[in-house]
Structure formats: structure tokens, C-alpha cells
């Protein structure tokens, strides 16, 4: 039995998207900057996708969508595109549990003299809006707080945080790569100025993303050249992938409410099935949580020496041998045997921060998959920690 439970890392492209991408590849493959009919057909595919992605976010102006190569570029464009407008270093605020696509460009700016405040989170991974309010300085120019944390599933109080930023006339960005298409996002209602999303998290193709930029907000480009994407992102657009992104966004918007409810049911079932397992402790916030996300750290209630040898990476390998794909923490760091910076920021000791695992569900996940996974995971843990099994 083969079960894929790593949908936060990437999602399989939908069959509808694959068919549409193939159509674009064979019929509308022109350069969208060209004036002839081949180019204009390609340009129409891009603009259709722009409308579809804008609709997913309820953005009234499709021109507020800037297509990028993915979520990482969108995040970098948001952070550095604002920072480059200042001749002298200013102050910016992020959370202590950001994705590296945010934390690394911020670290770069810090090396250039920028002042950075990293907001703490509670043990469930939530930012306290009062901490944000207290961190604001007279030279704060940007606040970036992740919407849904990919490693532990916690969803932040974006509306409250964004309101604080807007009340102080500070730009607010959120990395919504994990939430777009999974939870409703309305940029007309939410006080958000910049927002990043990615195609391959919503059953599109890898290689496309987008940055929403609220009307009136200026950003400097990272790439200079032909002036594509309203001169904000030069380079010939990847027409087939972007077109597929648009279709994936449209399908996600149509199905979101029903699929969200279904995934919450499966997510909670998996948590319930593992509740009697003494080896696992849930991480993240159970109430304010991504609908498809389950995460744990390996626990040793008997303080045996066996747990010292166990890492999340080891459990991932064992589950893979059983035909089940899960993840050890953030997908971007799962190849490194080092404590999770996210779990450390949430107050977990270093040894426990090595033992995080993540199971994320998707369109193809069934109740049978959940029940089988729970059984296999318990077997793996019993096998890895025989002293614990005997103690039971």
C-alpha cells in the first residue's frame, strides 16, 4: 500500500492541470511579449491565469498579482523589494518561526545594517499581537508574519496582526504558501499589503508562484531586463506553468469549503487514533491549525536511553520502507540532522527538536489511508523503542 502524506512539501499536479498545461505547450507556446498572434495567445493565457489567481484571493485588480518562479521568490521580492527603496537601513519585524524564504533574506538585510525584531511565539507557535504592538519602532517599515506554519501547522491571527500594522501605517506581508487554496483568504477584508503563494502547493506545477501587491504599494524589482510583470519581475514568463497555476487556483477556490471540511475530519481522526500512543506528543495549535496538518515530536514517557537514538528523520525512513511518505519538520531542512529552529523557537529542548515529524493530507487521502498510517506508525515506534514497548 502506497500512501503519500507530504502534501505540505508538494502536491501532485491535478489531471485537469496536466491536460491544460499540455494544451498550452502545444498550442500557445509563444513568447507573451511578442505582438504577433502566437505571442498574443500566450499573453492571453497569462492574463487568464492572473485573473484566476486574483479571484482565489478576492483581489479585485488582477494587476495586483505578480507571477514569480515560486513562493521563495515571491517572499524575497516582498522583503527585498521593500527594503531596496531605502537608502539607509531601517527596522523590520518577523516572527521567530518564519520559513527560510523569509528568514534568510531578512538575515541578509541584518548583515547590511538593518535592525530586525523576531517576535516570540508560545508553545503552540502563535504570535501574541501585543508583542507585535510593543515591537514597533518609529523606523519600522515592514512586518512579515507567516500565515500557516508548514512544520507545526499553526495558523497566525493575521487579521489582528495586520490591523496593528495598518494602524501604524506599516506595510504588512504574509507568507500564505500553506494557506492559500486551503483556507479562505480575502485581501479586500484582511489588512494585508503583500502576500505570497505557490502553484505546487495547490495541485499546480512546480516552478510558479505569485506575490499579491495591494494597489498603491510600491516594490523594487529583484530582476532587471525586459520589464515583464509590470516591470516588477523581468524574464519571459513560464506560460504553461503559470496557466496551470491559474487553473489550479480556480479549482481550489471552487472546492475549498468542502475539501477543507473533509480534511479537518481526516486530520482529527489521525490525531485521535494516535492519542493512545505514549511515544508521540502533538505539536502546534490544535484549534488554530491548517486543515490538512498533523505533527508530533517523539516522546519517551519512561526516560529510556532508546529515545536518544531516535530522530524524526529516522522515522521518515522507516515509514518510507512501509510505503508511506511523511516528513521530518520543514521539507526545506529535512535532509539536515539538526534541531528544528521552529521547535526551538516554540520552547522545545534541542533533543526534542530533533524528533519532529509531520503528516500532511490532501485530495487523494482517504480514511483507509489514515487508519493504515496510524497502525504502521505505531508499529514503527514499537520496533524502534523496544524498551518502551516492554514497559507498556
Walkthrough of the structure:
The model is unreliable at 330-335 (pLDDT under 50). Strand 5, helix 6 and strand 6 form a beta-alpha-beta unit. The longest helix has 35 residues, at 239-273. Strands 2-8-7-6-5-3-4 form a seven-stranded mixed beta sheet, sandwiched between helices. Strands 9-10-12 form a three-stranded antiparallel beta sheet. Strands 1-11 form a two-stranded parallel ribbon. Helix 1 packs antiparallel against helix 7. It is an alpha/beta fold and 392 residues long. It contains eleven helices and twelve strands.
Record the SSE blueprint.
Elements: E1 3-4, H1 15-27, H2 37-57, E2 65-68, H3 71-83, E3 91-95, H4 100-111, E4 115-119, H5 129-135, E5 140-144, H6 158-167, E6 171-175, E7 194-198, E8 209-213, H7 239-273, E9 280-282, E10 293-298, H8 312-321, E11 324-325, H9 341-345, E12 356-360, H10 367-384, H11 386-391
Q: What brief labels describe this structure?
A:
12 strands, seven-stranded mixed β-sheet, alpha/beta, three-stranded antiparallel β-sheet, 11 helices, 392 residues
Q: Assign the structural class, choosing from mainly alpha, mainly beta, alpha/beta, alpha+beta, or little secondary structure.
A: alpha/beta
Order of helices and strands: EHHEHEHEHEHEEEHEEHEHEHH
Mean pLDDT equals: 94
Strand content: 5-15%
Question: Numbering strands along the chain, what is their spatial order in the largest sheet?
Answer: 2-8-7-6-5-3-4
How far is the first residue's CA from the last residue's CA?
Answer: 29 Å
Biggest β-sheet, characterized? 7 strands, mixed
Question: How many individual β-strands?
Answer: 12
Radius of gyration: 22 Å
Helix percent reads: 25-40%
The total of helices stands at: 11
Identify the overall geometry: globular
- Pick out the low-confidence regions: 330-335
